[in-house]
C-alpha cells in the first residue's frame, strides 16, 4: 500500500468509523452469537496472496461487527464505561503512525516527556500533593496498562521494600490487606507476589474502616507476621462504595511504632473508576482526606475520561521505590541522559511501552478540564435520576449509595428473584447489566456508561426493568400459590390465604385484591412469613403474566364451598384484564 492508497482508504475508514459510532443505537447491545461463530467463518490458514482493503473492510462489516458487544450503546449498563471519543481515536491513529517503542528517554524523547507533562497535568487537576508530581523531583506519574497492573507494581515495590527493611529471604511472613469488596486484581497480585492476603469485612457503609484494619494488623504482628501492604478502594466494583481513607491513614500512622523493626506499610489507593471524578473539586475530598499516608494511587482514564483503552494513570510518592525494585539495566538500554530524566521501563513490568500519553494529550486539550468535568457530572446526574425512579418502587431496594455513575439494587426477597430478573432483562436484548455479590446479596449493577445516554434512555431503562419485574414477581406468585406437592389450592383457599378481600365487608369481585398471601411451606408445618402486600393498582398494572396459559393456572383457585362468605376471591377475568395492559417502552 502506497501513500495515495493509504489516503484513499484512510478517508473511507474514518467515514466507516463515524457512521458506526453515530449509528450505534441501531446496533444490538449484545450479539446473538455462540462460541466459535467467527472461527468457523474464517479460513484456518493465513492467505498466501494479498487481499484488497475493500474485501477486508467488507469482512469487518459482515463478520466482525455482528459479533461485537457494543460498549458504547446508550443501553449498555454493564461493568464500567469503556472510554471513547473522536479526539482519542485521532490520538491513537497518530500514535500508530509514529510507531515508536518508548521504553527509555533515548528511545523516544517526546514519548517520555509528554507522559511526564500529562501526568503532572492530571495530578494537579485532581489536587495531588506536590510529592506525587514529577516537578517535585521525588515522585511522579506513569501510564500503565490497567489498574490491575498498577496494583501489582505497587505490591511488588512494597514487597521489595519490606525485604530490605526486615532483611527477609522469604515472603512467607508478609501480609497484605484489603476489603472483601476490593477488586479481584488485589488477590491476583498477592498470588503473584507469593504473600498472604487478608480480605477484611467492610462496615455498614460497605467500606473498610481503620479500626478493622488496625485489629487485623495487631493480630498478625502478635502472630509474628509482617504487615507490608494495604490496598484501599475508592469506588468498589460491586457498588462504588468507598473505604474510609482518613481512618485507614490514622490507623497506619498510629501503628508505626508497634514493633521493634518500624512498620513501614505501603498504602495504595485503587480508584480505577471513581478516581476520574476527582478532577471535579466537589469529589476531591474523597481522596485528599487521608492522603497523608498514601504511597501510590491510580485510576483508569480509559474508564471515564473519554480516552480509549489502555490508559491506566498511576502516581507514586517516591519513585525510587519503583526503580529500586524494577530496574534492569543491560548495556544495550543505557544512554547518556538516564540519570537526568525518567526511564519508564523502570516504573512497570514491560520493557516496551506504547505512546499512550498522546491520546490523553489530545483528549485533555480538545475537551479541556471543564469539558471532562461536564461529562462526569452529567453521568452522575443520570445515575441519580435512575436512583429516584428506583426508590419510588417499593419492590426494590438499593444496596449502597449513589455517589458516582453506578447504582446497585435488587428485588426485595430471595436472591433468586434478582437473578431471574437480570436473566430475563439481558435475554430480552433491551438492556445489558451484570451482577455482583455484596454481603450475601445478589445485586444488579446499573452503570451509566455511554456518552450518548440521555434522560429518555434512563426512563426507558427503568420501564424495561419494572416491566420484567412485573413478570418475574407474577410468576413467583403463581409458583408459590400453587405450592406443588405441598398444599393444594383448595386447602389454601379454605384457609383464606389466597386473594382475600382487602376489606372483608366488601363483596364486589372487581374490588377484591390480594392482601395477604403466605409463603410456601411443607405440609404439617406452620407458615413462617407473609408474602408482599398488593394494592388494586399494583394488581392491574404490575401483574402482567407471560401468557394466558400462566394466568389460566389460577382457575383452580376459584372459591370453594368452604370459603368464608365474606371473603370474595379474585376471578380469572380480572387477571386476564390485567394481562391486556402492556407497559409501553
Report on the architecture of this protein.
The chain is α/β, with parallel strands linked by helices and 585 residues long. The protein has helices spanning 3-22, 53-64, 86-98, 109-125, 147-166, 184-193, 210-222, 245-255, 285-288, 301-304, 319-326, 356-391, 415-428, 455-482, 489-494, 536-542, 548-552, 572-579; strands at 140-144, 174-179, 196-200, 226-233, 266-270, 296-300, 312-316, 396-398, 406-411, 434-438, 441-447. α9 links the parallel β5 (266-270) and β6. It is globular, with a radius of gyration of 29 Å.
Feature tags:
single chain; 585 residues; alpha/beta; seven-stranded mixed beta sheet; four-stranded antiparallel beta sheet; 18 helices; globular
Summarize the entry for a quick read.
40% of the residues lie in helices and 10% in strands. It contains 18 helices and eleven strands.
- Computed over alpha carbons, the radius of gyration is 29 Å
Classify the beta-strand content into a percent band. 5-15%
Assembly status: single chain
The proportion of residues forming helix, as a percent range, comes to 40-55%
Total of helices: 18
Number of strands: 11
Shape type: globular
Q: Indicate the structural class.
A: alpha/beta
| Alpha-carbon distance between the two ends | 49 Å
Secondary structure topology:
Layout: H1 3-22, H2 53-64, H3 86-98, H4 109-125, E1 140-144, H5 147-166, E2 174-179, H6 184-193, E3 196-200, H7 210-222, E4 226-233, H8 245-255, E5 266-270, H9 285-288, E6 296-300, H10 301-304, E7 312-316, H11 319-326, H12 356-391, E8 396-398, E9 406-411, H13 415-428, E10 434-438, E11 441-447, H14 455-482, H15 489-494, H16 536-542, H17 548-552, H18 572-579
Parallel strand pairs: 2-3, 2-4, 4-5, 5-6
Antiparallel strand pairs: 1-7, 6-7, 8-9, 9-11, 10-11
Helix pairs in contact: 3-12, 4-12, 5-6, 5-11, 7-8, 12-14, 13-14, 16-18
Amino acid at each position: 500500500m502506497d501513500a495515495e492508497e493509504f489516503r484513499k482508504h484512510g478517508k473511507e475508514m474514518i467515514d466507516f468509523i463515524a457512521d458506526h459510532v453515530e449509528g450505534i443505537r441501531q446496533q444490538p447491545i449484545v450479539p446473538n452469537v455462540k462460541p466459535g461463530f467467527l472461527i468457523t467463518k474464517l479460513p484456518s490458514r493465513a492467505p498466501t496472496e494479498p487481499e484488497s482493503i475493500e474485501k477486508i473492510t467488507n469482512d469487518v462489516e459482515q463478520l466482525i461487527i455482528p459479533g461485537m458487544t457494543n460498549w458504547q450503546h446508550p443501553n449498555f449498563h454493564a461493568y464500567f464505561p469503556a472510554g471513547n471519543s473522536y479526539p482519542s481515536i485521532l490520538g491513537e491513529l497518530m500514535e500508530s503512525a509514529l510507531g515508536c517503542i518508548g521504553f527509555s528517554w533515548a528511545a523516544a524523547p517526546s514519548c517520555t516527556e509528554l507522559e511526564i507533562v500529562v501526568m503532572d497535568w492530571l495530578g494537579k487537576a485532581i489536587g495531588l500533593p506536590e510529592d506525587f508530581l514529577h516537578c517535585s523531583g521525588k515522585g511522579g506519574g506513569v501510564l500503565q496498562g490497567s489498574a490491575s497492573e498498577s496494583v501489582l507494581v505497587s505490591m511488588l515495590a512494597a514487597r521489595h521494600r519490606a525485604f530490605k527493611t526486615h532483611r527477609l529471604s522469604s515472603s512467607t511472613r508478609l501480609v497484605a490487606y484489603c476489603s472483601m469488596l476490593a477488586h479481584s486484581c488485589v488477590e491476583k497480585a498477592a498470588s503473584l507476589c507469593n504473600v498472604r492476603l487478608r480480605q477484611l469485612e467492610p462496615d455498614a457503609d460497605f467500606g473498610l474502616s481503620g479500626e478493622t484494619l488496625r485489629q487485623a494488623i495487631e493480630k498478625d504482628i502478635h502472630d509474628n507476621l509482617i504487615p507490608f501492604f494495604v490496598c484501599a478502594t475508592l469506588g468498589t466494583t460491586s457498588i462504588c462504595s468507598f473505604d474510609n481513607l482518613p481512618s485507614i491513614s490514622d490507623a497506619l500512622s498510629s501503628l508505626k511504632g508497634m514493633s521493634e523493626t518500624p512498620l513501614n506499610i505501603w498504602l495504595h489507593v485503587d480508584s480505577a473508576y471513581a478516581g476520574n471524578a476527582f478532577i471535579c473539586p466537589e469529589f476531591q475530598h474523597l481522596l485528599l482526606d487521608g492522603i497523608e499516608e498514601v504511597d501510590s494511587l491510580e485510576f483508569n482514564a480509559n474508564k471515564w475520561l473519554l480516552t480509549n483503552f489502555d490508559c491506566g494513570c498511576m502516581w507514586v510518592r517516591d519513585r525510587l521505590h519503583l526503580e529500586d525494585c524494577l530496574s534492569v539495566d543491560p548495556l544495550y538500554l543505557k544512554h547518556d541522559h538516564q540519570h537526568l530524566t525518567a526511564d519508564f521501563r523502570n516504573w512497570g513490568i514491560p520493557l516496551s511501552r506504547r505512546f499512550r500519553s498522546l491520546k490523553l494529550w489530545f483528549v485533555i486539550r480538545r475537551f479541556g478540564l471543564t469539558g471532562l468535568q461536564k461529562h462526569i457530572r452529567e453521568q452522575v446526574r443520570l445515575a441519580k435520576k435512575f436512583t429516584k425512579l428506583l426508590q419510588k418502587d417499593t419492590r426494590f431496594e438499593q444496596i449502597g449509595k449513589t455517589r458516582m455513575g453506578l447504582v446497585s439494587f435488587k428485588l426485595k426477597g430471595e436472591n433468586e428473584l434478582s437473578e431471574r430478573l437480570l436473566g430475563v432483562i439481558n435475554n430480552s436484548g433491551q438492556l445489558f447489566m451484570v451482577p455482583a455479590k455484596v454481603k450475601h446479596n445478589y445485586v444488579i449493577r446499573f452503570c451509566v456508561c455511554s456518552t450518548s445516554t440521555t434522560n429518555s434512555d434512563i426512563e426507558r431503562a427503568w420501564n424495561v426493568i419494572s416491566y420484567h419485574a412485573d413478570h418475574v414477581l407474577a410468576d413467583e406468585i403463581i409458583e408459590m400459590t400453587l405450592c406443588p406437592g405441598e398444599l393444594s389450592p383448595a386447602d389454601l383457599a379454605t384457609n383464606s390465604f389466597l386473594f382475600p378481600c382487602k376489606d372483608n365487608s366488601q363483596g364486589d369481585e372487581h374490588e377484591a385484591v390480594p392482601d395477604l398471601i403466605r409463603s410456601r411451606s411443607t405440609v404439617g408445618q406452620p407458615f413462617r412469613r407473609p408474602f408482599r402486600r398488593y394494592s388494586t393498582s399494583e394488581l392491574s398494572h404490575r401483574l402482567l403474566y407471560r401468557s394466558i396459559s400462566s394466568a389460566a393456572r389460577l382457575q383452580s383457585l376459584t372459591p370453594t364451598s368452604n370459603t368464608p362468605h365474606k371473603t370474595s376471591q379474585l376471578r380469572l377475568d380480572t387477571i386476564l384484564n390485567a394481562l391486556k395492559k402492556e407497559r409501553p417502552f
